[in-house]
Amino acid sequence: MVSKHSAITVQVTELESQMETPGVSCWDFAYPTGKCDPAPAKSCCFSTAPLSKQHERFASHTNAPACDISHGGHHRQKSKKQSKHAGEILESRTYLLSSPTPVSITYPQTKTTISTLLSQPNTKLIYLVPQANIVCPKVCELMRLPRAVGSSFQILPVPPEIEMKAGGKDSCSISDVIAVQEVVRKILKNTKTRKFDGYIAFEEEREAWTFLEHVGKGVKCSATKG
Question: What's the burial of 214, exposed, middle or buried (CB within 10 Å: 0-12/13-18/19+)?
Fold first, then answer.
């Protein structure tokens, strides 16, 4: 008697984001490859474009018929793949965050984003805030957020003369370079972090994200030189 395999139906739901929320821009989020183009693109997770071929392959693989118990080899293969995938998820990730202005510390999405990241295992956050606000009630509240196993949260004060904003390569001023170098030294001195997987700036200006990118590259370069 031939048994019929039951098909697994998977519904893929696209995440939608309200990008008009004050204090959040598309490039503010921590992508492994760096900033995300504000314009709709396939590389942007907020894009409404059709699923990429990679996602289609994933969906078609998940929609395949359920594995029969008699196919032990295939079942073991699937288990190994799942274990490997779980290991990748638990890989340590480090992000550099900033609130260039006191008001950006109080944005609802600031707490939500930090809380979400800390709920992921092995996630390390370095958060830059204005020096005058290092012990404000809101910062203390963020420090008390629950953390998953292996996750950590470190807040570094930034002197008032540093704006935590910088232009790109073609428009970066001498003062921007000096500010970046000072923050790089602060990170190397007070943390064990030597590279970042992404950057989050809780401000709408692109310069806030660019500053973090410059700092991240500076930390990595200094660590490489030893």
Answer: buried
